[in-house]
Every structure is written in C-alpha cells, then in structure tokens.
Amino acid sequence: MRIRAAGYLAAAATLSAMASATPAAASHAPFGFDGIWRVTRIVGYSEVSVSPDRAHRLVGQTVTIGPRQLRIGDDDCVPDAMHADTRATAPVLLDRYHAGPADAGVPARTLMLDAGQCGHVFRIGADIVVYQGGVFYRASRVKPADKRR
C-alpha cells in the first residue's frame, strides 16, 4: 500500500512540475504565434465597431506576427514588448476591448499573446483570434515562421 501511495505522490509531483513549467515556458516563447495567417471570418464585435462593410474588408487579408511585428491587414504595429501565457480571457477582453469571451469567440481561458500597445492575439486550437476596429476576427495559419531565426 505504501509503495502504491509513494508512486501516486511521485506521479503527482511530476505532473505538478510539468504543469508549472508550461506557463513559464510559454511566457518566454511567444512565437508559437509567429508566421502568416489569413483572416477567415468575423467571430464577434465589441461595444463600438466599424461599419459592416468595412469590417468585412479584412476577411481574406493577412495577419503577420514576428518578433518585432504585428501586422493586421494594412495596419502595421511594432510592439513595445511581446509575451505569451495561458490565462483567463475575460479580464483582458473587458478591460481592453469592452467585450466578453462570447463576443470574441474565445474560451474563458486560452493561450494569449500580449503585444503591448499593439493588442492581444488569442489562440483557439490551430487558429488565432485578432481584434481590429471593434471586430474580432478568426485567422488560420498560411505559413509558419521562418525556422532560420
């Protein structure tokens, strides 16, 4: 019985160490977001947004994310800092975008890239959600980051 309990404790300690290492590793490696993405659809709106015609213009455009770049369509921004971690989405969405997770089409907790003054990018499985002009857009990866960095 003691051997089984010791085995459970060792397994729990290993899993706990792995779980605590994951966010730290993610916060130093934001470039799982790197690459070129294509906007596929609108997933939601914040309280104030551009006209529907203008909102739909971004569908089909690209999002480019690099170590010193977040470009959404023609809007190119140089982030003051970038880091990624898994966290609750509601506080960021409410504070920064006056929206909730359902408005943005994101879960209550997900991997999030914080690009400083350039905004946030949310991971949804293999896709991302970006915000532009009061509209949340879903985008799919077209090209991964250049591996030669």
The structure class reads: alpha+beta
Strand ordering within the main sheet: 4-3-2-1-9-8-7-6-5
Which stretches of 5+ consecutive residues score pLDDT under 50? Answer: 1-29
Q: What's the helical proportion of residues?
A: 25-40%
Tally of domains: 1
Give the averaged pLDDT, no decimals.
82
Task: Walk me through what this model shows.
There is one protein chain. Helix content is 29%, strand content 38%. It is built from four helices and nine strands; from the N terminus they run αβαββββααββββ. It has helices at residues 2-27, 52-56, 90-97, 101-104; strands at 35-45, 62-66, 69-72, 75-77, 83-88, 109-114, 120-124, 127-132, 135-144. Strands 4-3-2-1-9-8-7-6-5 form a nine-stranded antiparallel sheet. The model is unreliable at 1-29 (pLDDT under 50).
Write the layout of secondary structure elements.
Layout: H1 2-27, E1 35-45, H2 52-56, E2 62-66, E3 69-72, E4 75-77, E5 83-88, H3 90-97, H4 101-104, E6 109-114, E7 120-124, E8 127-132, E9 135-144
Antiparallel strand pairs: 1-2, 1-9, 2-3, 3-4, 5-6, 6-7, 7-8, 8-9
Task: Explain briefly what this protein structure is.
The chain is of the alpha+beta class and 149 residues long. The chain contains 4 helices and 9 strands.
